[in-house]
Amino acid sequence: MTQQLLRGVTSLRFNQDQSCFCCAMETGVRIYNVEPLMEKGHLDHEQVGSMGLVEMLHRSNLLALVGGGSSPKFSEISVLIWDDAREGKDSKEKLVLEFTFTKPVLSVRMRHDKIVIVLKNRIYVYSFPDNPRKLFEFDTRDNPKGPCDLCPSLEKQLLVFPGHKCGSLQLVPGTVVASASQKGTLIRLFDTQSKEKLVELRRGTDPATLYCDKGTVYIFALKDTRLNRRSALARVGKVGPMIGQYVDSQWSLASFTVPAESACICAFGRNTSKNVNSVIAICVDGTFHKYVFTPDGNFNREAFDVYLDICDDDDF
């Protein structure tokens, strides 16, 4: 997810198990541990310039970097693999791989055996990290924001990206995939094997780009959907087909707010007890939020911090 903003954050990404997150900035790169929140390391502007995208490979020493921002050192059409385990103070000594294309790179996904690189109309899949070679190449419709996801488990060969037809998803042999409507008011979940729609969830009526850019984080129950709220019309007999779709939708069991109009990435945190769950929201304005909630919809803020103010004197 990318968004130019106030304090120079250009993109935010969790690693594959949401235990860390990485922050591409006008001033370089920062890596944070989620719980407890602390900076694990950083690459400064002198080393990498301003960054457009950064992707972590679990908690390893490998990072994928794409230049961007106002003073980039690296090109926006290249993905560079940074290996911090290599000795040497010169940044060139730590750049171990390069993938270069003819158009800007919009997103990157990695796991222990593959790297996926997304352009506006094409997706490339390479073996990774040893002796990388191109495995697949997929044409897509215009994909200007680069949404794509790769199953992190080596037991599942699943890649999801926009299909050729608007409103469709292409699955490249996970079990469940979520899609959002253009207005951002509906989320639909599908079984990746049968392609059957499992459930339809409704966020609200106010249009939004689904990176929580309206300042509200919504929590839905998937295993026990009875916990989600439903329309009062669901108790009224038969209704017309258009209204019926609305009545069949489900609303979040809980929600909480973050700074208004500040896009964020979210993940579930460690459970504090059997009936208490937690959600982490990392916002592009530099704030960190942790909320705990119960199955009946009660929630409380447990932690707040400004992660951009947390600094580690050591290099990454």
TrEMBL record:
<dbReference type="InterPro" id="IPR015943">
    <property type="entry name" value="WD40/YVTN_repeat-like_dom_sf"/>
</dbReference>
<dbReference type="InterPro" id="IPR036322">
    <property type="entry name" value="WD40_repeat_dom_sf"/>
</dbReference>
<keyword id="KW-0853">WD repeat</keyword>
<keyword id="KW-0677">Repeat</keyword>
<dbReference type="InterPro" id="IPR048720">
    <property type="entry name" value="PROPPIN"/>
</dbReference>
<protein>
    <recommendedName>
        <fullName>WD repeat-containing protein 45</fullName>
    </recommendedName>
</protein>
<comment type="similarity">
    <text>Belongs to the WD repeat PROPPIN family.</text>
</comment>
